[in-house]
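User: Please fill in residues for this 371-position structure.
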């Protein structure tokens, strides 16, 4: 009986799909003749002002349960450089023996990470009892899809639902059970199945397929665009792809990233700067200039290169003593002592710091000056 019911359900879904057919693409109001003229409604990346992206075919596809393979297209800019990947997804979402079609247009970055989604006009996402998603629900879904470490990766759908103790109780909750506490706050209430299906579509095997396809197309222009992106993933990828001789050409952008990015990226930059940076005052200077602005670990990594610092840099650091940890200050003072570094401005800054009662490690500088 159950098998027959499931067959009827999917026959009805097939009929619905046939009625929509290829017209689903024309329902997307932001896409005219395969041209994306505005950023997706829910989007993580920056959008180039007045930018337009053209759809381009790829050999990629995404497997959608019971609906077969659905095409994944690439979106390229006016210079024909890849910017995004996208797919118009149509998939059944089944819960409590009831199946509905979910329509959503998904976007991935060039590295296969979630970039955003669009909804189709007239085809809203729905919850139990066919209640339509509210704006807050779409935002919650967007936040969920942005989390690549979600608990949804590690649990099956059955593990996300508490089985009801009294199945004879009437109502939808008695049939489906309540969403477990660990995931309840991150999914849209009444739409666990839709959230689960969407998350696994975004973060499934297609991620690696997209990245491999991008790697087959990678060129200097793409690397430069990623380097100039605000995306940490793109920055790290570009820095990894950047040939050593190109680092000096991109010193301005790399130093900007060093100033504004996260500690992980700064650590990568310092550890991978070519020797020419540390042997050239002009190239290393922008990184020392950000000494007081960066995190503690990045400052320590910079101080590991004190032997390459110029006299001017060492003098400038003497005015940044208040941001140094105890060990950092000791390393700096030890370097001054070993290299007999001294100047009027250097000593003036050291003396001012040593006499400042509000400085916790003023005594270290005082001891250094006495010795």
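Assistant: Residues filled in for all 371 positions:
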């Amino acid at each position: 009986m159950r098998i027959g019911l499931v067959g009827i359900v999917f026959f009805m879904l097939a009929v619905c799909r046939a009625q929509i057919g290829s017209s689903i693409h024309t329902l997307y109001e932001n896409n005219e003749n395969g041209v994306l003229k505005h950023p997706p409604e829910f989007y993580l990346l920056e959008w180039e002002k007045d930018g337009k992206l053209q759809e381009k075919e790829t050999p990629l596809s995404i497997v959608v349960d019971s609906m077969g393979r659905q095409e994944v297209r690439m979106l390229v800019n006016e210079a024909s450089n890849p910017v995004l990947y996208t797919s118009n997804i149509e998939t059944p979402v089944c819960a409590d023996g009831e199946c509905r079609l979910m329509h959503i247009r998904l976007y991935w970055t060039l590295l296969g990470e979630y970039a955003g989604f669009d909804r189709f006009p007239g085809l809203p996402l729905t919850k139990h009892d066919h209640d339509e998603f509210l704006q807050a629900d779409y935002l919650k879904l967007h936040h969920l899809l942005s989390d690549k470490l979600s608990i949804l990766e590690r649990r099956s759908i059955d593990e996300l639902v508490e089985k009801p103790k009294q199945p004879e109780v009437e109502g939808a909750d008695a049939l489906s059970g309540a969403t477990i506490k660990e995931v309840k706050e991150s999914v849209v209430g009444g739409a666990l199945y839709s959230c689960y299906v969407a998350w696994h579509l975004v973060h499934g095997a297609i991620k690696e397929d997209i990245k491999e396809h991008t790697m087959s197309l990678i060129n200097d222009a793409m690397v430069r665009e990623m380097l100039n992106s605000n995306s940490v993933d793109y920055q790290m990828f570009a820095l990894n792809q950047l040939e050593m001789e190109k680092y000096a050409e991109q010193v301005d952008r790399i130093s900007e990233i060093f100033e504004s990015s996260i500690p992980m990226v700064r650590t990568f930059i310092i550890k991978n700067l070519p020797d020419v940076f540390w042997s050239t005052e002009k190239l290393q200077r922008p990184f020392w200039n950000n000494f007081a602005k960066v995190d503690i670990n990045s400052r320590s990594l910079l101080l590991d290169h004190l032997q390459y610092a110029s006299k001017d840099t060492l003098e400038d650091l003497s005015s940044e003593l208040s941001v140094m940890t105890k060990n950092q200050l000791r390393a700096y003072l030890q370097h001054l002592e070993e290299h007999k570094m001294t100047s009027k401005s250097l000593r003036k800054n050291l003396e001012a710091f040593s006499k400042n009662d509000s400085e916790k490690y003023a005594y270290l500088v005082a001891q250094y000056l006495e010795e």
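For context: Residues 1-28, 167-176 have pLDDT under 50 and may be disordered.
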